[in-house]
Each structure stands twice: as C-alpha cells, then as structure tokens.
Specification:
Number of strands of chain B: 10
Largest sheet of chain A: 7 strands, mixed
Distance between the termini of chain B: 29 Å
Largest interface: A-B, 15 and 20 residues
Strand content of chain A: 15-25%
Oligomer: heterodimer
Helix content of chain A: 25-40%
Largest sheet of chain B: 6 strands, mixed
Low-confidence stretches of chain A: 632-643
Radius of gyration of chain B: 19 Å
Number of helices of chain B: 10
Helix content of chain B: 25-40%
Distance between the termini of chain A: 61 Å
Number of helices of chain A: 21
Mean pLDDT of chain A: 89
Shape of chain A: globular
Strand order of the largest sheet of chain B: 6-7-8-3-9-10
Strand content of chain B: 15-25%
Low-confidence stretches of chain B: 1-6
Strand order of the largest sheet of chain A: 7-6-5-3-4-8-9
Radius of gyration of chain A: 26 Å
Chain lengths: ~650, ~260
C-alpha cells in the first residue's frame, strides 16, 4: 500500500504502461488520446518549467478554467514542485476569484483562456502576490500583447519549453524533483462550497488523500477498461478524488469539447462511472419528462407502460426485462448511460422519486455522502442489490462516525474522523478550531445512525427549523418534495418561529414555457410567465399534491411565485446550487412578511442583474397563492384545470 | 489601428464604380482602397448603395462603369466563382444557408472551390486521394468551427437554428474558404446585445488573429466606430466621407446625412 503523491503515481503509471490510453480530449471534433507516457511528458515539462520560474515548496498554484488535460497536468506539476494546488471554479465571479487568490497568496495562476485572463487583470492590486499568469489557449490574447501588456502573462507552451530545456540540461532533474516530494505534506487546497461565507480552502495531504481514494476503490472498484467523463468542475472535491482514483486504478479520463457539448460527448464515450450532484440527476429526469410531453401519443403510452413495469419490478426488488426492452435501454442510450456500472449522487439529498425513476430505467443510482473536509465521499450505498432511499448508506470501514448529542429519536450532529481527512483550513485556524475538535470533524449535518449501520441525513443542524408550536421540521425536506414537480425549478420553504409553513417558489422556466405554449398562453419574460393566473393555478395544484404527502404540520399553507430565478450570481444559491437561507430571508423579507400577514397582493419594483452583467428593472405584482387543504375544506376556490 | 495594415499596396482597389439599373443610378463614381489586414466599414442610410457596392466587389453585379482590382488584378468582368478562387468570400444580409443541410456541411460548402478531386476521383474514394483531401478539408472546417465556437451545433440542421446562430454559421462558411478578403453584409443585423458582442469579438479576432482583410457593412454605429480601422460613408450612391472613425463621425455632411443633425 504505497500511494505517496500524484506525481509519484503518474510517474509509475507512465513507466509501467507508457502506451496505454490515460485520457482523451475532444478537440476539433475528434477524440484525441493521451497515453500515460504523454501525460508524464507534459506534466514533467510543466513541473520543471514551473520550477524554473521559481515555484517551490509551500507556494500556491491556482488553477482556473474548464476541465482540460492542461488543468490536470498543472495540478500534478504543482505537487511535483512541492507547491499546493488551488482549484478555482471557472464560473466564479471576479470578486470570488479575487478573494481566493489574495487570501491564499497564489504565486502562479494557470488559466485556460483570455476570458479568465481578463478576470485576473481586472482584479489589479488584489493579485499582487501573483508573479506569473500562465495561459493555455492563446486565442484572443492579441489584446494583451505588445506595448503596455502585463509582463506576468506567459503562454503555457513556453513554460513547458523551459521545462524541456531544463530536462535536456540536467536529465536527472525530474527524479530529484520527485524525490523531494513529501507525501505527508499538504498538496491540495480544496475550497468548501461556502453556504454561509467566503469559501474556505481545506488542506489535503498527498498520501492521506490518495489513501482515501484507495479506500473508496476497494468498495467501488475500477479497472483500466473503465471510462470516466469529467463533467463537474475539477476544483470540486468529488472530481479531485476522481483524479486520485484515476491515477490509482488507471481508468480513462475523458474531457468534453465544450460545456455545451457535454451531453453529446457523454453519449459518445458511454461512461461506466458517474458521480453527479442531485441537481444534475434532477435536470436529466426533468429533461426526459419534458421531452416526453412533446412526444407522440404512442411513444407516451409506451413510456408510461414501460415505466410502470419498471416501478413495479423495483418494488419487488428486481428489474423487468420487458420494461428494459420498452423504455430502459433506449432511454439509457439517449442519456449516455448505456454502460454505466457505478452511478452515484452526492452533495445534497436527492428525492426518492428521482431515485426510483433512474433505477426503474435500469441506472443503478446510489446515494453517497461526504464533505470537502472529509475528502469527499465516505458514506455510500454499497454497489449491487436494492438500496434504501431514506438512507445515504454505510460509512467506509476505516471511518469512525458517531452522532453527537442525539435527541430521543437519535437525531444529532454527525461527527466523523478518518485517516484521509483534511489537515485544517488554510490560513484559518479559527475556522479549523470551530469544526475540528479533538481530531473529530463536526459536519454540521443532523442525522441518525440506524441500528443496521445505515446513516440517515436529515438536514443541516442549523437549518432545522422550529415552528412556533415547538415542532421541528426540515425546510429542505419540504423543498425537495416540491422540487420533484417538473414545474418547480427552485423553492425555499419558510417557517422558523412561525405558526405554519410557507414557501417562495420559482417556476422551472423551460418546462412551464412549454406548458404555456401548449395551452396557448402568451408570455414574454420569466417574470411575466410566473405572474400568469393560469400558471399560478398549475403550481397550486402541484403544491396541493405535495401537501397531500406531507404531515399536517409541514404542509405549505401559502406561497408566492417569485418573479426571478434564484441565482448564484445574486448570492441566493451557492455555486453547487444550495439555497443560502440568510440571503433569501433578508432579500425577500417584505415578501415573507406578506406571506404571514396574508396580504393578497404585493407590488414589486426592483432591479436585477442579468447573466451578462446588464441590469434590468422588474415591475410586477405578486398574488398570494393559497393551496387547498387535501382533507377538503378548501382555503381558496379551486380553479378549473386547463392542462 | 491594426499594425499589419500597411500603406504600401492596396489589396482591393475600387475605381470610379457606377451602377445603373434601368435608369436608376445606384452608384455614382465611387472609389476606395482597402489595404491588406484592414478592417474597413461602409456605412450609410438605407438605399445608399452599400450592398450594391459590395455586390460589385463580389461579382454578383457588374459595374456599369469603373473598375475593381484585387491584389493587382482586374476582377471587374470576372465571374463570382473566379473571384472566390482568388480569395474573396462574403456573407449575405439575408441569410443564405442551405437550410436542410447540417451546420458542418454548410461550412464545408465554403471550401468547395478549393477541392481538387473531381467526380471520378471521388468515386475511387480510397484510391484517388479523395479521402486524404476530404480529411484535410474536414480539419480546416473544424478549425473554423472551434474558432467561432459552434461545436455544440455542428451536427444540427442549419434551418432549425435560432437566427443569431445561423448568422454565425454563415460567417463560418465564408471564413472556411480562408479568404484573403472577407465581405460582411450587416453581420449583426437583428441580433440582441449579447449576440452582437460575440459577433464583434469574432470579427475582431478574425482581423487581428487570422489577419484577414475585412470589408463590412454595418448599421450599428457603436460597433463600427469601435472596430474599424477606416470608415467610408455613402449617401444616394455617392461617397461623402472616408477616413478614421473619429474623423468621419465629426464630418458635417455625415452628421446631417446619417447620424442626424439634431445637435
């Protein structure tokens, strides 16, 4: 058992299997392969090149861009220099990039293209620590050449050329560099999603990190014949661990051409393993449903029949060959899941309905659970056989997990330690002390460890809300129920300290727009569509259906349809699309008051920032929606269904 | 100013061109020169003769009088196909894509005149070298697709695409020919702000990075003044001004004819 560091593993793989395919990238319409030998050559050149421009132990090398081979080579090269790699999310706002670069004092930033270069240059003084900005794609860089250009800009190819020259001058340079890498040192800075504040970089040590990836592989093994498609951002811990497993198990890492081509590229590769956050699974399921709404009646009938068969077989704990023939195989092919052997979801809870849907069509979807601080996933449904949708599975064998301060039902904070966990937060001892006490990580998640060893995660401890009557409830649980409706895009359940539960609901624009088209309902914008009475009636019916499944005290009594989508750019969601409750409570305080006062209409006049940076004024009128009680005795007159 | 634009030899030399349609005079003695590497814009009110002038360069119209020289060769009187072979490509104000063909096939059409293998060699696909030629052209087309960022729609049917993307595909087809002179007829007409910004970036990159000489008709004054090396103004078939964007914008006749004499 000797996984020491990522550069060590790469070096060993390239020596043992120089001509085996390690990775592919789709460029100019063709999947181009990288052998292990080539990966090593590129990484080695980059590492020696970085060394020659002064990168050494303890320095921070930030990486910013789309998932590309150069990103991976850059990370491993940084580790080879003894430096720390820091992945920065590519769609981060300039402000967030600035915070991370400044906070970590990054010495070199490796960026993908001109777009990211612009972002860095815009930061001015805040990037004072950065000595070199290394860019991969020279496209559009003519703006930054010639007189007055930032002298820190240097093409990646030149750094690699430096490295190749260094290797020619001194053939033993790489071995010496590798020999000096300390497996016990911190190599990866992995940012937490920062639901409440600025992201905190968790420090992960090489050997511990790889040891954890190894432990995961023992439960969910991979072979060199496995295909992986790198879809989620590389700065994310899940993708980082995937990288570690890649080096350990030598499967093939595939990089998509562009973000927009992901679905088509995935279908071409047909990955055998996939870890997606719930959001992506939900979107895929919703997409299938939306497409079926457009299909001919024959197809719809077949789909309904096949799915029903699949569900029935699932309840008996098996699979239906007929269902597979009718819908399963075709759907899996469409989605690019034909060869999938390990499908997992993590990062947030996924509704059981979505689980059932994918399992019914033959995708063996399993729940996993973890945190950045604990090196990603450490609790998972075991592969094979039936799973319990209510739980997130069992912890890995080497993980110690206990519930702190459990209440009478066994509900309490999940507290964990294992050898692969983080070494604390980078330059933030206060945060480290708050979360890491006596070597145990306090996850802040509320859960129950059942007698059968399965963990049930309920919510964040601080997000458990208490109604005025003293009943505890989990807003997220209610939200997940609501979000399974194809018409609901995002929602926030409210009720802390109040008499009853209410909600702010955002329509799922793509699907409600399609519905409106079908029902000959004219509309212009998102705000306009969500203000339509017909849409309100539709959503009311959806909420009523959800209410029927909820305990009486957790039913949504009133709601507003919000005039805009919740957006990470407005700080209302995190980058991984979790609701930031504080921000929402603050920003929509007047709406929330209106919900509880029962004001029938609220006039809104506000300005929002659009995705392209322009600002737009919204003037609209929100109407209070009161779903009928499932037990009868309607609160509001029910409108006629038009769908 | 693009450093590659050199004053020495004009790539395009239009001298005294007039165009008459059944007694209606569309152009009257218009002359201008475009240097290699330049981004040259033609502006003017509707009906001023901008597109007619572009058509005289591309060969769609033959001027009634005057001459058009390209790279030192007289091209007025030659067919559009010959002009294409010499390295002139264009886009149209109203889209002219093959609606039922895929995007990639549409772009490949732009390279048709560069293909050497004929019917027979095509029939002997593997033997006659047609396959290698096909590969080479395919690679060139993919480079353009990458440059204009239309990878995600390369296999879609052109006619099903939204307008802004179809405009981009048309540009891709013109660029695929790797022309020495690119004629753009209102590349941004009918686009929203975001699409315009993208298109402006592509045109700028084509000019600066691929060093393409570009003659562009455009109505959006902001775009024209930002991007162009030089601007020419037409009004009622006559040239009323030519020069650097700032100078042209300040020209009194231009202000009254085109920009409005409000101030």
């Amino acid at each position: 058992m000797t996984p020491r560091s990522m550069p060590h593993l790469l070096d060993a793989n390239a020596r043992a299997h120089p001509d085996a395919v390690a990775a592919r990238e789709k460029t100019l319409g063709i999947w181009r392969t990288f052998t292990w030998g080539e990966c090593l050559r590129r990484t080695r050149a980059l590492a020696l090149g970085l060394r020659s421009i002064g990168v050494g132990p303890g320095d921070v090398v930030a990486l910013l861009g789309q998932n590309r081979p150069a990103w991976v080579f850059g990370e491993i090269a940084a580790h080879a220099c003894g430096a720390l790699s820091l992945g920065v999310y590519r769609d981060s706002l300039t402000e967030e990039v600035g915070f991370l670069i400044e906070f970590c004092g990054a010495r070199v930033v490796i960026v993908e293209d001109e777009e990211q270069v612009d972002k860095l240059l815009e930061l001015g003084e805040r990037t004072a620590s950065v000595a070199h900005i290394v860019y991969d794609d020279p496209r559009g860089m003519w703006k930054h050449t010639g007189e007055g250009a930032d002298p820190r800009l240097v093409p990646l190819a030149r750094i690699e050329a430096f490295g190749e020259q260094a290797l020619r001058d001194d053939p033993g340079a790489w071995e010496r560099l590798l020999g000096a890498v300390d497996p016990g040192a911190v190599a990866i800075l992995c940012t937490t999603s920062g639901t409440t504040s600025n992201p905190k970089p968790a420090m992960l040590r090489s050997a511990a990190f790889l040891g954890h990836a190894q432990a995961m592989l023992e439960v969910d093994p991979r072979t060199p014949d496995d295909e992986y498609v790198s879809v989620l951002p590389l700065p994310w811990i899940g993708e980082q661990v995937a990288l570690g497993s890649w080096l350990l198990a030598r499967f093939r890492f595939n990089f998509c051409e562009e973000a927009e081509t992901t679905a088509a590229d995935m279908r071409e590769i047909g990955p055998t393993a996939l870890l997606w956050p719930p959001r992506a699974w939900e979107a895929a399921a919703a997409d299938v449903k939306a497409r079926m709404m457009d299909a001919t009646w024959i197809k719809r009938a077949l789909y309904g029949w096949g799915l029903a068969l699949g569900y029935r077989a699932l309840e008996r704990g098996g699979r239906s060959a007929l269902a597979d023939l009718i819908v399963g195989r075709a759907l899996r092919d469409r989605l690019g899941f034909s060869r999938i052997a390990s499908a997992t979801t993590g990062g947030a809870p996924l509704g059981p309905e979505v689980f059932r849907f994918f399992r019914a069509i033959g995708v063996p979807l399993r729940q996993v659970y973890g945190q950045t601080e604990l090196c990603g996933v450490y609790v998972m449904h075991r592969p094979g056989g039936a799973i319990d949708f209510a739980s997130v599975g069992r912890p890995l064998d080497y993980v110690e997990l206990r519930i702190e301060n459990p209440d009478r039902t066994g509900l309490g904070e999940i507290v964990v330690r294992h050898p692969g966990m983080f070494a604390g937060f980078y330059r933030n001892d206060e945060a480290t002390r708050a979360d890491l006490r006596d070597g145990w990580m306090h996850t802040g998640d509320a859960g129950i460890l059942r007698d059968d060893g399965e963990l049930v995660v309920v919510d964040r401890v601080r997000d458990l809300a208490q109604l005025a009557g003293g009943d505890a409830f989990s807003p997220q649980f209610v939200e997940n129920k609501l979000k399974f409706s194809p018409y609901v895009g995002e929602c926030v359940a409210l009720g802390q300290g109040r008499e009853f539960v209410t909600a702010l609901v955002c329509i799922r624009f793509s699907i409600v727009a399609k519905w409106a088209e079908k029902n000959r309902l004219a509309f212009t914008t998102y705000s306009d569509l969500s203000a339509r009475d017909e849409v309100a009636a539709l959503l009311r019916r959806e909420v009523e259906a959800v209410n029927a499944q909820l305990p009486e005290n957790q039913r949504v009594r009133r709601f507003f349809l919000l005039y805009k989508e919740l957006d990470p750019d407005d700080g209302e969601l995190t980058r991984t699309r979790k609701v930031r409750r504080g921000t929402v409570n603050e920003r929509y305080a007047s709406l929330i008051d209106a919900l509880y006062e029962g004001r029938p209409v609220v006039d809104v006049d506000t300005t929002i920032t659009l995705a392209d940076g322009r600002r737009s004024r919204i003037v609209t009128r929100l109407k209070l929606q009161t779903p009928a009680d499932p037990a009868g005795a309607p609160h509001a007159p029910r409108e006629e269904a038009r769908a | 100013m693009n450093p590659q634009a050199n004053a020495a030899a004009p790539l395009l030399d239009v001298t005294d061109v007039s165009l008459v349609f059944k007694g209606v005079s569309a152009l009257q003695g218009v002359s201008f020169q475009v240097r290699a590497g330049e981004l040259f814009s033609i502006i003017g009110p509707n009906g001023a003769g901008k597109t007619s002038l572009l058509n005289c360069v591309s060969g769609r119209y033959q001027p009634s009088a005057g001459s058009v020289d390209f790279d030192g060769r007289r091209i007025s009187g030659r067919s559009p196909a010959i002009r294409a072979q010499l390295g002139i490509a264009r886009t149209f104000q109203n889209l002219a894509l093959f609606a039922h063909m895929s995007v990639i096939d549409n772009v490949k059409v732009g390279r048709h005149h560069l293909m050497k293998k004929g019917f027979l060699a095509g029939g002997l696909y593997w033997l006659g070298g047609a396959r290698d030629e096909e590969y080479a052209h395919h690679a060139a087309v993919e480079e353009v697709i990458d440059f204009l960022e239309i990878q995600h729609i390369r296999n879609r049917t052109a006619g099903t695409l939204p307008y802004g993307l179809r405009k981009r595909v048309e540009l891709a087809r013109a660029v695929a020919a790797r022309p020495r002179l690119l004629l753009l007829d209102e590349p941004m007409a009918g686009m929203n702000l975001e699409e315009k910004e993208d298109m402006a970036r592509y045109i700028n990159d084509l000019s600066r990075e691929w060093a393409m000489t570009i003659v562009m008709i455009e109505h959006d004054m902001g775009v024209v003044m930002d991007m162009s090396d030089r601007v020419m103004v037409l009004n009622f078939g006559q040239k009323i001004a030519e020069g650097a964007p700032a100078a042209v914008a300040a020209h009194p006749q231009v202000r009254s004819a085109y920009l409005g004499s409000g101030e």
